[in-house]
C-alpha cells in the first residue's frame, strides 16, 4: 500500500511539474551512428576476449563491436540477441563496470574501458526499432510447456522454447509481463516504456501465450501444471521481503523499497507520488540505491542510505554508489537499525554503529538517530510459497547446472534459484540454458 498524501511529511508535487520528466529521463543518452563508430574504434578485438568470459550470457562482444564498426548495427544486434534475447534491457541495467567493461583490456591499461554497454544498447535498439523480429519458429513439435513467471528468466526461456517449435504458456501474477524489468528497475534506467517495448518485440516470435493475474498456489498448483503440460519452468522470483524485526517498523511512513519502486514504475504522473522531506533507506544493494536516488529525484530534500557493514560489502557497485552520492544521497556504513520511533507516524530511526566482533557483526554501543518522515526497507527478498515437492538449497530452489529441479519435468531459473547475483543478465542465462535442457528432454535427446 502506498503512503497516503495525508501522512505527515509525505506529500506529492514537491517539484515543478517539468522537473519530473527531466529527472526521470534516460540516465545516458543514446549514441548516434557517428558516436557509436568512434566508440567501436577503441576496441582491440581481442582473441579470447576477457569481456566475453565476464559476460554471464557469453555474448561475442568483439564480433558485435566489429559489426558496428563496419556500419552494420542490425547485424550486431542479432549477434547480441543470439545469446541474450533481453540484450536491450541488459545494456541499460547490467553492472557493466564490474562485468564486461571491468574485464576490458583498455580498462586495465588506461582506466577507461570500451563502452560496451552503450554500444550494446545502440545495436539492440537499432534492431528493435525496425520492428522486425530476427527469428522464426521451427516446425511445431506438439509439445506444451508452462512457464511460471514473466520476468527475465521466464521470458527468455519461453522465447527459446518457442524458437524450437514448442507451444508456451506464460503464467504471471502481475498485471503486466516483465517481472523485475517492469517493476523493480529504477525508472531512469528504463525510460519511455522500454521494458514493455522489449516484451512486445520478444513475443513476435509467436507460439507464446501470456496469462496475467495467475498466481501459483492460488490459481493452480505445480502438480496440476505437471499433469497438463509436457514440462514446467519456474521463474517465480523472490516475492517475500525481509523484515527488520523492530517495533513500529510498519508505522505510517515506513514501507518496503521494492513496493515503492514498483509503484513508481506504474505511476503515469510522478508529480502525484508522495515522497518525504527526510528519507532514510536501509540497505546496501541496488534496490536501496534505486529507492534512494528516486526519492531525491521526486523532491526529497534529505536522503540517507544506511548499511550495517562497510562499503566494500555493499551489493551495489561503486559506480551506482557514486551515482547516488552525485544525486545528493548521503551514505552511512557500519550502522544497523535498532529502533523505529513513531508517534502516529514515523519520526526517527535509531542506529547503532557496528564493528566485527568475536561473534560476527556487533554493535559498538554508540547510537545515533536520523530524522525521518519516510523509511524504505531494502534488506533483501526471500522465496515464499515454495511449490510442494521442490527441494531447496538454503533459501532458494535447488537446481543443477541445466536448471533441473528434483521433480521430474520441472526446471527453474532466475532469482528463485541460487548460483547467481540476482542480476537480469544472470536470469537470462539461466532461462536460456534451461530452455535448451527442456528442449533436449522433450525431443528425447537429453544426455
Structure description:
The chain contains 17 helices and 17 strands. Helix 15 (286-298) runs parallel beside helix 16 (318-326). The model has no long low-confidence stretch (mean pLDDT 95). The strands form five sheets. It has a five-stranded parallel β-sheet, with helices on both faces. A hairpin with a 2-residue loop joins strand 11 (346-357) and strand 12. It has three domains: 17-24 and 241-381, 3-Layer(bba) Sandwich (FAD/NAD(P)-binding domain); 33-129, Fumarate Reductase Iron-sulfur Protein, Chain B, domain 2, CATH 1.10.1060; 144-239 and 383-442, FAD/NAD(P)-binding domain, CATH 3.50.50.60. The longest helix is centred in the C-terminal third of the chain and has 19 residues, at 424-442. The protein has helices spanning 17-23, 33-40, 50-54, 61-69, 73-83, 87-93, 100-103, 105-110, 116-129, 152-163, 180-183, 194-202, 222-228, 257-266, 286-298, 318-326, 424-442, and strands spanning 144-148, 167-172, 208-212, 231-234, 240-241, 254-256, 278-282, 302-306, 329-332, 335-342, 346-357, 360-371, 374-377, 381-382, 392-393, 396-397, 410-412. The N and C termini lie far apart (48 Å). By secondary structure, it is of the alpha/beta class.
Amino acid at each position: 500500500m502506498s503512503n497516503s498524501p495525508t501522512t505527515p511529511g509525505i506529500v506529492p508535487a514537491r517539484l515543478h511539474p517539468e522537473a519530473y520528466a527531466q529527472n526521470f529521463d534516460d540516465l545516458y543518452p543514446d549514441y548516434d551512428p557517428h558516436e557509436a563508430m568512434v566508440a567501436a574504434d577503441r576496441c582491440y578485438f581481442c582473441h579470447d576476449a576477457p569481456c566475453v568470459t565476464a559476460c554471464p550470457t557469453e555474448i561475442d562482444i568483439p564480433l558485435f563491436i566489429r559489426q558496428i564498426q563496419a556500419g552494420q548495427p542490425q547485424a550486431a544486434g542479432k549477434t547480441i540477441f543470439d545469446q541474450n534475447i533481453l540484450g536491450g534491457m541488459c545494456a541499460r541495467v547490467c553492472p557493466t563496470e564490474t562485468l564486461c567493461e571491468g574485464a576490458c583490456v583498455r580498462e586495465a591499461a588506461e582506466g577507461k574501458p570500451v563502452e560496451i554497454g552503450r554500444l550494446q544498447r545502440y545495436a539492440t535498439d537499432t534492431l528493435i526499432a525496425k520492428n522486425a523480429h530476427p527469428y522464426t519458429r521451427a516446425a511445431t513439435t506438439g509439445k506444451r510447456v508452462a512457464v511460471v513467471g514473466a520476468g527475465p528468466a521466464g521470458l527468455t526461456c519461453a522465447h527459446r522454447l518457442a524458437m524450437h517449435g514448442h507451444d508456451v504458456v506464460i503464467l504471471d501474477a502481475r498485471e503486466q509481463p516483465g517481472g523485475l524489468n517492469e517493476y523493480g528497475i529504477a525508472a531512469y534506467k528504463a525510460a519511455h516504456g522500454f521494458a514493455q517495448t522489449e516484451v512486445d518485440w520478444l513475443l513476435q516470435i509467436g507460439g507464446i501465450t501470456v496469462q496475467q493475474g495467475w498466481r501459483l498456489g492460488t490459481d493452480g498448483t505445480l502438480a496440476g501444471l505437471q499433469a497438463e503440460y509436457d514440462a514446467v519452468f519456474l521463474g517465480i522470483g523472490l516475492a517475500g521481503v525481509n523484515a527488520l524485526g523492530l517495533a513500529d517498523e510498519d508505522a505510517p511512513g515506513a514501507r518496503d523499497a521494492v513496493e515503492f519502486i514498483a509503484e513508481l514504475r506504474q505511476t503515469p504522473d510522478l508529480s502525484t507520488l508522495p515522497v518525504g522531506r527526510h528519507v532514510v533507506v536501509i540497505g546496501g544493494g541496488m534496490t536501496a540505491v534505486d529507492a534512494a536516488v528516486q526519492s531525491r529525484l521526486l523532491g526529497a530534500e534529505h536522503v540517507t542510505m544506511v548499511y550495517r557493514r562497510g562499503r566494500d560489502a555493499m551489493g551495489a557497485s561503486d559506480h551506482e554508489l557514486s551515482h547516488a552520492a552525485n544525486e545528493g544521497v548521503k551514505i552511512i556504513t557500519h550502522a544497523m537499525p535498532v529502533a523505529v520511533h513513531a508517534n502516529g507516524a514515523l519520526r526517527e530511526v535509531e542506529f547503532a554503529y557496528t564493528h566485527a566482533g568475536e561473534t560476527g557483526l556487533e554493535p559498538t554501543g554508540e547510537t545515533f538517530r536520523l530524522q525521518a518522515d519516510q523509511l524504505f526497507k531494502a534488506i533483501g527478498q526471500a522465496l515464499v510459497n515454495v511449490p510442494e515437492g521442490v527441494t531447496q538449497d538454503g533459501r532458494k530452489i535447488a537446481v543443477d547446472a541445466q536448471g533441473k529441479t528434483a521433480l521430474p519435468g520441472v526446471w527453474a531459473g532466475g532469482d528463485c534459484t541460487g548460483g547467481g547475483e540476482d542480476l537480469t543478465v544472470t536470469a537470462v542465462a539461466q532461462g536460456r540454458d534451461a530452455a535448451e535442457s527442456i528442449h533436449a528432454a522433450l525431443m528425447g535427446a537429453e544426455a
